[in-house]
Each structure stands twice: as C-alpha cells, then as structure tokens.
Write a structure and sequence with these properties.
Blueprint (H helix, E strand, L loop, with lengths): L1 H4 L1 H13 L1 H18 L7 E2 L19 H18 L4 H10 L3 E15 L4 E13 L8 E9 L6 H15 L7 E8 L1 H13 L7 E2 L8 E9 L7 E5 L10 H14 L3 E3 L2 E2 L7 H20 L15 E8 L9 H15 L13 E2 L5 E4 H25 L7 H24 L1 H7 L4 H18 L6 H4 L4 H25 L1 H17 L6 H10 L2 H15 L6 H22 L3 H20 L3
Subcellular location: Endoplasmic reticulum membrane
InterPro entries: Gaa1
Pathway: Glycolipid biosynthesis; glycosylphosphatidylinositol-anchor biosynthesis
Length: 600
Amino acid sequence: MGLLSDPNRRRALISLLVRLNTPISVVCYFAGVAWFMGLAFEPFTLRTYMSENAMGSTMVEERFPAGERALASGKEFSAHKKKVGGMPVDWLVKTMQDRGLEVFTQRFSRTLPFPDENKERYMVKGTNVYGILRAPRAPRTEALVLSAPCSPGDQNNQAVGLLLGLAQYFRSQIFWAKDIIFLVNEHDLIGMQAWLEGYHHTNTTGMDWSPLQGRGGSIQAALTLELSTDVITSMDLVLEGLNGQLPNLDLANLFYAFCQKIGILCTIQGKLQRNDWDSVSGYSHSIQTLMMMVMKQASGRPWGDHGLFLRYHIEAATVKGVNSFRQYKTDATTIGRLLEGMYRKLNNLLERLHQSYFFYLLPSLSHFVSIGYYMPAFGLLTVILLLRVSFRIFHLEVSSPGVLSVLTPLVISHLTGAALYALPTRFQEIAVEHFPVSETEAVVLTAIAVYTAGLALPHNTHRLLTGEGTEQGWRVLKLVAVLYLAVLLGCTALINFSLGFILALTLVPAAVLVTPHRPKVLTAFTLVILSPACTLLFSVFFFQELQEMPVTFQEGWLLYLSVISQGILDHFLYGSLVFPLIALLVYPCWLLFWNILFWK
C-alpha cells in the first residue's frame, strides 16, 4: 500500500511499466499461448465426475433385447423412404401408433435467403413425425426427447429403426416418471428448428410451421441419434451447439459412464481415449482433440440437431455411431442398452441438470478443463491491451484532437461493417443478372467485395471533415480502438471462449503493432494477415489438418467460400451470432487499426 500511496514511488512504478511495456506484452502473449497449450497436459486437467446425485450411479439393469428387430425396422423405413422419395409420414405414423404412442405430425416450410448449394435446396418443405409415451407414474409435467433425423439417401435409417425399437420397449416399462418424446425430423436442423419453435410457441426465424397438436411436459434433456451402418465400432459424442453453447458436463459424464459399464468404445471428436499422456504422441493426441473442440465451438454453428435444444436451456447431445473399421464391433442391442441406461438415469432427475459445469473444454472424455483453468490464457492476452491503454494514456497530451477527427473513422468503419452485413443477401439478384454466377456465389463474392472495398474506404477518413490529421489525433483514436477491442474480446469470450481466444490471438498483435510511423507496406501486409478474413482462411486449413484430411490450396479456397456461405445461412436460419459479430463489430474494429496505419 505504501508503494501506491507514495506519489514518488507511484510515479516511478508507472515510469517502469511504460519503459517495459513492450517486453511485458511479449511475455504475456507467449505466456497466454503456452498456458493454452498446457491445458491438454493431463496433470493440469481435472478428472470427470458425476455431480448430479440422481445420476451418480450406473446401477440400473439394461434389458433392451431387440437390436436385430430394430435394424429390420430401419431397413423397412429405408424401403418406404425410397418408395415415396422422402419422409414416409404415413408409415411412420402407423408404426408409432402400433407401438402404443400418441402420434402427431407437424408440417413446415422455409424459403432460404439464398440456395444452400451444399445440400442443393432453396424451398424447403417437410413434415416432422413424433410420438409421445406418457409417463404412467407422474403428473406429466416433464419430458425427455429422443430424436433421429430423416436424412437423404441411405443415411441414418438404422437410427430411426433403433428409435422405433426403443419406443416399443419403453412402452412395456412402468417406471417412467417423465414423458418420452420420440421425434423423427425431416431436413435435419430446419425440421428440428420448426419443431422446437412449435413446441415452445416461439418464432424467431420467420419459419412457417403448423401448430403442434400434442405436447409433453417441460423438456429436461434430449439426445439425437445418428446411425448409418449396421456395423458400429465406436460411439462418438457431439456436444457443440449453436453459438458455442455446451450442455451440462454431467450429460457427457453420463454417456462416458455407461460406455465404460457396457463396454462400448467411446470417442469425442472422433478420437479414442489414450492413457500415455506422458508421451509426446499422447500429448499431441490430447491437444488435437482439444483444438478440434475449440475450432468447432468457435464456428458458432450447431454440429448436430441437439445444438438447437441448447438455446431453450435443454441439455442435449448427439450420439453418433461410427464405423472406423476397427476390429472391435458393437451391435444394435448394445447401443440400445446404452440409450436405455442413459434415459433411465435421466428419468430420475428431480430438477434440471445444473450442478456440473456449463463452460469447459474436453481433451478427452475422462478429463476436462474448467472455465477457471482456461480463462487465464485469455486473460494474459487481454492484459496486453490494458497495458497499451495505460501506455497511450501516459503519452497523451492535454490538448484535445477534436471530436470529429476520432468520430469520423468510427462512424465510417461501422457503416462499412453494416454494408458487409446487409449487402450480400440484398444484392444477390442484381449480381446474378449482371454476372455469370449462382445466387450462393453472388452472396459470397459480394461479401468478399465489400470486405475488400473497406480497405480503401476508411483510411484517411479522419481528413474528410477536419482537414489534416494530427499526432494527437491518431493517439486518441488508437486509445479508443484498443479499449473497444478489449471490451469486444472480453464480451465475446464470456459467450464463446473459443471464438474470443482465436480472435485475441490475431487482433491483439495487430493492436500492439500498428502506428502511422512504421513501414507502410510491411505493416499493411501484417495487418491483412491478422485480419478476420485471413484468420478464417487459416482456420479452415488448420481444421482440415486436425481432422487428418489435408487439402490443397484450391480445395481449401473452395472450402473457405463454402464456410462463408454456410455462416451467413446459419445466421438467417438458426440465429448464429458469428456472422453479425464479425461484420458489425470485429471487422469495423480492425478497420480502425487500418485507419491508424494510414494516418497522415
């Protein structure tokens, strides 16, 4: 306290921090990166454990016997699907009714803002079919959901068959205290979005759907099942949901506990558990798994139908059957018993899952990194911005540079961001008329054109209304930009740590390096490399490397364009926040630093 209360000592401390600002910033940056890389080292992680007392034991006897019959139902479903060329609604309704469920349908339609060339659709119409098994021993105020998407071709037929088999088996049990809803949704995420909006009486995306005629209780948890082969070697757990949301960790713990009990190989990010954490290959395996989760979470898109449940505070995950040609094989009966055990434990819940973590990273299913462990890595990066703010304040003069000299680049940068957000979807028809491109290509190329044009528009905008810029002007603008970036990254990391951390890795060095007095060409090249667009491009190639599916530059560029179009679609279809965040906030903030570089 004496050090801070003594004016002379305080002045000496401030002077020391100012002199060592750059070395401290460099140390903090590399310390933040090293901290993050250390998160995958097993001694620095926590072993997973069940926090919810109602699910604290796997002592239930799973008796599901009808795996072969479920596969036969899947083949029958596939035959009817091919016969009608889509969802066999009538057959599903009759089959669910034969199994003793209350069966209802929901029609929906959605016109996409531009065609989805990945799935070749524009006008989407479909029907969801769901059956409700009423709880015989409770007031029917709570429910669980088991869903299986009706996918095109031969995809996911086995999942629908197993869902029907479980419905028939669950119907014969008397211990259910919650309604169980068996849902087969058409058109994957679009159908699931329609059903969830209808169930909760909301319409946040402008989709047309018919009201649900039957409802269960308040949904406590949900699982989405994906099986596309009769031969299953392992079960993969998918957790990443819309805008980087994750389900309560106890749901993942429950899956892992029953896989261990029944003897099923379980994976996350498609990677098996390894015990050689003290070897280089073991650590490399863990860090790859961790980084894949970070990349998926940062994308903001739902990586399964479960991802849309999370916005309604429903804990959900996707369980995916994988045939990776290992010698180990799992039959449908065993998978049915896995799901039976999980639903019997979820049936015991007296309240929503809340006792375990909602913010975590998983280097494996047996270990996790809590928010208290990974946030310091982000904090070390943001400390650099606070140091730069103190440095700028110390060097500011008393004289004012004029409000307009700072306000003008702020306004024009954000107007450019607004154009990046609004113009691609609004000008697609004009672009198609004048250029030989499809609607999707027009949207993506318009976005790239607006983004590139922004590099030319904002710089020197400080002179638009106020004449020549001053030395004091760019210092004030940089102070504002650094504060803006610190607040933006902090808020982003609270919502989606992975996205905030990736942006901090690139934008913090840009904020530190840029001044009008550095070599223009070299600094401009560095700023472009550290820009949001290039960060996304590098992320596409890096993600392919993590998946062990490297691509050439041409293939990577096509993937990059596809990611841009998919990100815009995800925003308009499901409410993903990544595209508006980048367009309306991150890109304008980066333009402020670009403007500072060309200050005259």
